[in-house]
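Figure 6 in text form: structure in, sequence out.
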């Protein structure tokens, strides 16, 4: 195996989906439907898995709450009952088989306690083992502006630079308090940069003082896109925070560990040629339903 070959992707989906309550009391937000370009209704998680597979990922680990394991197994591992399968159109019967084939590449991982996003990522440590891996958010779907998928673009940059990569997108100042934000020095203008700081949900004042990027408009910043290519060293920093009970906003977070990873190994930022669609907020989900199919 080549040193830089990436085989695995991790998708944490163990959150409570509080921002979409009460719908998430009965349906996991990762199972909310979207309509794809072919007009097929599919759960959000399926679009994310397909994004990973499109990039050549061979195995996908999904981090779930124990109570939700059966739901995801029913989607990805178990065929429909015979009487339902017979009612499906020939195209959907074929798609059912496709889902089973896809399911053979999926491993269900458990987060026994919901202790934050960083903790959910840490739950994939033993499965990932000592390999670089693609990390994807469980409530974001992606649409590329070019022939290569968004995930493929990030993997290509990793192969080029052979260090941690964080996917980026331009964000206006008024929304950066909702996202991770980075600054750095351009290696290729408006495309690739060396990351010099990551910061979670900055205020506009902090961003204007510390997170400006040369050549960008005054009210534009680089926000995290929702795709990361990480070395297994990230698990050391996550373990350190968990063992020391170092929590931020009551939970174990990822971004502060990414900053430590950057300091130790270096990190490249890549402005993804594409759009990230958020399905984790009511208005954003509604807009995704409108825009995703036609993007």
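Output sequence:
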């Amino acid at each position: 195996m080549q040193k830089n070959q990436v085989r695995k992707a991790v998708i944490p989906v163990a959150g409570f989906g509080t921002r979409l309550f009460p719908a998430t009391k009965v349906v996991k937000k990762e199972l909310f439907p979207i309509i794809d370009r072919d007009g097929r209704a599919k759960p959000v998680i399926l679009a994310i898995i397909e994004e990973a597979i499109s990039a050549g990922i061979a195995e996908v680990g999904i981090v779930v709450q124990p109570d939700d394991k059966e739901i995801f197994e029913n989607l990805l591992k178990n065929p429909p009952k015979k009487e339902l399968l017979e009612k499906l159109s020939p195209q959907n019967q074929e798609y059912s088989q496709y889902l089973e084939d896809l399911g053979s590449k999926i491993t269900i991982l458990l987060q026994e306690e919901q202790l934050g996003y960083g903790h959910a990522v840490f739950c994939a440590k033993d499965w990932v083992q000592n390999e670089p891996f693609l990390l994807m958010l469980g409530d974001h779907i992606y649409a590329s502006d070019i022939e290569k998928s968004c995930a493929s673009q990030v993997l290509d940059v990793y192969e080029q630079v052979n260090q941690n990569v964080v996917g980026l997108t331009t964000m206006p100042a008024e929304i950066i308090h909702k996202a991770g934000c980075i600054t750095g020095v351009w290696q290729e203008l408006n495309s690739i940069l060396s990351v010099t700081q990551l910061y979670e949900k900055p205020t506009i004042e902090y961003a204007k003082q510390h997170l400006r990027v040369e050549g960008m408009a005054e009210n534009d910043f680089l926000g995290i896109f929702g795709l990361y290519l990480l070395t297994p060293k990230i698990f050391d920093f996550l373990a350190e925070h968990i063992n020391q009970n170092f929590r931020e906003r009551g939970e174990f977070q990822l971004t502060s560990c990414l900053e430590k990873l950057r300091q130790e190994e270096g990190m490249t930022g890549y402005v993804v040629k594409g759009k990230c669609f958020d399905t984790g907020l009511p208005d954003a989900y509604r807009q995704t339903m409108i825009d995703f199919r036609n993007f």
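Caption detail: The chain has one domain: 8-294.
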